[in-house]
């Protein structure tokens, strides 16, 4: 059974006098009247109380009205009545053709629904000519249906033939219509466009689909859309905030963070951003207190960042530029009150009657008190609007940021103010973090540099040069260190180490380890024994930090250390490593020698031995001691870095200082993540003529023989002024060795920057200095030696010990056999 909503259309022919002269079968189905019942009777018999348009008693022609009609059974039927005049060949009026259709049938409801739909609807033929639009669509395109029917879409709406955002690679909307007409595939998209005569870009959600006939052929294209500008721009603000979360604060650098804020906001939000900060913030210091300035006071800041869409504008030259905000200025007022201000530029003649665009929050309830401010002077500055926000984090005021729109006509909304404050809040926290990090990094770096050698000691065994570079600005200072320690017997210790970790704790740990190494080196321990004692020390330091302690761990357990000792007399290098990279040795002929040694465990593990390795070096060999930060990076692995180090180390380089610079430039990148230390040393051998030794029999009668040997050798060296003291100290040391030591006993004199006297024996008993009583027969020997020389000590060996002392020599005595004109200077040596 057919649905009444789909009842057929009734057709009637009405003569000029209002008599029905024709009646269709649809009339019988709709109203129950047959042709025999109605033809020849007045049409008014069908009416309940309304005239038929266009007929006598009606009101015009060509109208469609909803009129109640009389059914044959006496009921009333609401019908849509449409009248059209009929004319003869001569133009004479013959009557009217009238159609009746029950109100509520599907076609009529659909027509009315589409016509009254609040969404924009349109239908176009495959050539994109207008076939139909509803009233809402006409309001959007500012054209009536009569104005556009039969015209090309591109002709009526040329602005839809281009994309508003070329950088997004959007396809013009007209092309999408053509694509659907060609392919028959429906499409859904969001279209952002600026309607004709409007200054504001709107976002529309649209759908496009093909209209097919019974055979499936595409006869038309339809579309619908609704304005979703509020939702779209809200989503864009959220996307910008999301971008800001990942894009602001990526580096722990104050200026870098300010630049990130500026670049994140342009051009999606504004056209120009300037970030001004207090100088104290740039230096990593505490910002001024809230009582440091008032609204009537000039505020002096530095422009840390400025970014704009204009190609000819940008940041001023230099890292920062001083800026001054005069009393009463918007920026000064915002910083004093800690509240943001929105300024809008009024068009000429508008004054305070600002014309808010469609969809903008013009209701004052949406704005915080005092906003927005109409400022007619902005136009003279080339601005259409400006939002000034104080930068504050953790209760501290850091500076101020200004978000400006230059050429775009859109006025700021209350939601834009919220976005600006959110961006500023994220940036302020990141800037404050960078400031705090900068302060801690500066403190750690200052501590680090103060604990490193301020100048390498002068000695004849090696020429040395060093470099230390902290990690990049986005990471903390590490615990890399190095040292050069003169030892007895003209020897020298070369040390390099690395404390795992960064920051103040790593720097403090580095200082403790360096002090410990110097203390143990003064005892003259062999490298393997020194590292064993250092390992015990690290274990004891770590055990002091109980779990309940409020002190944080210092991280010494993660330290590595390489300790080497070079003897210029034997030209031998002895080394031991606690988890540290072994040194690179380059012979004078350019041969790269790999040290055949195995690094021991890092310091702080305990229980594992350290092994010493000894190798003989040709004179003028080049040693390179370094930390892993020199050869490791994000761009290459350790093996590649080591190979690069071998390439750039030139053993024939005239200057070790210049060679250090070459190495650092070649291996270190700008964005390094670890500290790097480098210690270069060129070895020298002591002239055999500057060393004299003899064996001493364990007989007191041999003491005069030893004295004479020493005095003769000193005189041969032209050091007659030192012979008296030499005779005394040799007598005391040899006597002690004969009396308290064990054979074999050996006396050795070394002429270096000082005159060194050494007496060795096979006993491990170490002498000690004591004060003799009045009637004691002994006990004054070492006291005498200590008073007559500039230093003395004991050096333990595998079999026995060596007692040594050193006398200061007159300047130039080392080169006494040369004339004053031919002696090289200290710098030349």
Essential attributes:
5-stranded antiparallel beta sheet, 7-stranded mixed beta sheet, alpha+beta, 829 residues, rod-shaped
Summarize the structure in words:
The protein is built from 20 helices and 32 strands. By secondary structure, it is of the alpha+beta class. A hairpin with a 5-residue loop joins strand 3 and strand 4. The N terminus and C terminus are likely disordered.
Shape: rod-shaped
Strand order of the largest sheet: 13-12-11-17-16-14-15
Task: Give the overall average pLDDT.
Answer: 81
Instruction: Please identify the oligomeric state.
Output: single chain
Q: What share of the residues lie within helices?
A: 25-40%
Give the N-terminus to C-terminus distance in angstroms: 119 Å
Radius of gyration, CA atoms, in whole angstroms: 49 Å
Structural class: alpha+beta
- The total of beta strands comes to 32
Strand content: 25-35%
Uncertain segments: 1-5, 56-61, 312-318, 347-362, 546-556, 770-779, 813-829
Count every helix, treating DSSP H or I runs of 4 or more residues as helices.
20
Concise summary:
The chain is of the alpha+beta class and 829 residues long. The protein is 28% helix and 27% strand. It has a 7-stranded mixed sheet with strand order 13-12-11-17-16-14-15, with helices on both faces.
């Amino acid at each position: 059974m057919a649905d009444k909503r789909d009842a057929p259309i009734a057709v009637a022919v009405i003569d000029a006098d209002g008599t029905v002269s024709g009646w269709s079968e649809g009339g019988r189905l709709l109203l129950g009247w047959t042709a025999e019942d109605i033809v020849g009777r007045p049409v008014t018999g069908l009416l309940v109380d309304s005239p038929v348009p266009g007929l006598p008693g009606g009101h015009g022609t060509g109208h469609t009205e909803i009129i109640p009609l009389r059914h044959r059974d006496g009921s009333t039927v609401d019908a849509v009545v449409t009248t059209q005049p009929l004319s003869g060949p001569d133009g004479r009026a013959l009557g009217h053709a009238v159609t009746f259709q029950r109100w509520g049938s599907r076609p009529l409801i659909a027509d009315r629904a589409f016509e009254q739909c609040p969404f924009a609807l349109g239908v176009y033929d495959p050539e994109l000519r207008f076939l139909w639009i509803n009233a809402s669509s006409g309001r959007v395109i500012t054209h009536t249906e009569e104005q556009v029917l039969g015209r090309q879409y591109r002709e009526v709406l040329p602005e839809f033939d281009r994309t508003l955002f070329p950088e997004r690679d959007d396809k013009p909307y007209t092309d999408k219509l053509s694509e659907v007409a060609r392919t028959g595939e429906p499409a859904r998209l969001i279209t952002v466009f600026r309607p004709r005569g409007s200054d504001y870009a709107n976002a529309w959600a649209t759908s496009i689909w093909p209209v097919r006939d019974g055979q499936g052929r595409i006869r038309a294209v339809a579309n619908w859309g609704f304005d979703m500008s509020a939702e779209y721009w809200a989503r864009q603000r959220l996307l910008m905030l999301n971008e800001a979360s990942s894009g602001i604060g990526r580096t722990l650098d104050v200026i870098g963070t300010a630049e990130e804020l500026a670049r994140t906001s342009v051009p999606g939000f504004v056209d120009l951003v300037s970030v001004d900060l207090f100088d104290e913030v740039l230096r990593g210091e505490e910002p001024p207190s809230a009582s440091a300035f008032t609204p009537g006071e000039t505020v002096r800041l530095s422009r840390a960042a400025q970014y704009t869409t204009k190609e000819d504008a940008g940041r001023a030259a230099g890292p920062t530029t001083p800026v001054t905000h005069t009393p009463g200025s918007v920026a000064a007022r915002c910083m004093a009150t800690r509240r943001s201000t929105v300024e809008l530029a009024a068009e000429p003649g508008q004054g305070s009657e600002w014309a808010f665009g469609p969809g903008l929050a013009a209701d004052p309830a949406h704005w915080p008190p005092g906003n927005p401010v109409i400022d007619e002077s902005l136009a003279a500055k080339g601005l259409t609007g400006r939002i000034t926000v104080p930068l504050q984090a953790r209760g501290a005021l850091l500076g101020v940021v200004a978000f400006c729109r230059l050429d775009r006509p859109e006025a700021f909304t209350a939601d834009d103010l919220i976005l600006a404050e959110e961006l500023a809040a994220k940036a302020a926290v990141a800037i404050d973090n960078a400031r705090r990090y900068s302060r801690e990094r500066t403190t750690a770096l200052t501590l680090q540099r103060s604990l490193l050698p301020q100048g390498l000691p002068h000695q004849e065994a090696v020429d040395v040069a060093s470099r230390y570079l902290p990690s990049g600005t986005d990471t903390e200072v590490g615990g890399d260190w190095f040292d050069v320690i003169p030892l007895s017997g003209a020897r020298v210790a070369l040390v390099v180490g690395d404390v795992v970790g960064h920051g103040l704790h790593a720097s403090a740990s580095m200082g403790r380890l360096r002090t410990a190494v110097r203390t143990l080196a003064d005892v003259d321990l062999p490298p393997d024994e020194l590292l064993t004692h250092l390992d015990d020390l690290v274990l004891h330091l770590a055990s002091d930090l109980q779990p309940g302690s409020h002190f944080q761990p210092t991280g010494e357990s993660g330290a590595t250390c390489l300790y080497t000792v070079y003897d210029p007399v034997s030209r031998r290098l002895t080394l031991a490593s606690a988890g540290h990279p072994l040194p690179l040795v380059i012979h004078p002929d350019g041969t790269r020698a790999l040290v055949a040694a195995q690094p021991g465990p890092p310091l702080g593990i305990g229980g594992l031995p350290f092994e010493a390795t000894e190798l003989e070096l040709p004179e003028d060999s080049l040693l390179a001691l370094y930390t892993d930060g020199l050869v490791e990076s994000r761009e290459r692995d350790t093996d590649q870095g080591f190979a690069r180090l071998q390439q750039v180390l030139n053993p024939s380089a005239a200057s070790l200082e210049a060679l250090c610079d070459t190495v650092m430039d070649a291996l270190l990148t700008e964005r390094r993540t670890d500290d790097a230390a480098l210690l270069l040393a060129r070895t020298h051998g002591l002239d055999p003529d500057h060393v004299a030794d003899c064996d001493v029999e364990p007989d007191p009668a041999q003491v005069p023989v030893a004295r004479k040997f020493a005095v003769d050798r000193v005189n041969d060296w032209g050091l007659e002024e030192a012979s008296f003291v030499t005779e005394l100290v040799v007598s005391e040391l040899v006597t002690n060795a004969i009396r308290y030591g064990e054979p074999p006993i050996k006396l050795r004199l070394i002429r270096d920057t000082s005159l060194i006297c050494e007496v060795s024996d096979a006993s491990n008993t170490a002498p000690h200095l004591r004060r003799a009583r009045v009637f004691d027969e002994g006990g004054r020997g070492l006291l005498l030696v200590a008073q007559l020389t500039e230093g003395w000590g004991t050096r333990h060996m595998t079999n026995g010990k060596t007692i040594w002392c050193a006398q200061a020599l007159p300047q130039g005595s080392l080169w006494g056999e040369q004339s004053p004109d031919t002696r090289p200077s200290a710098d030349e040596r």
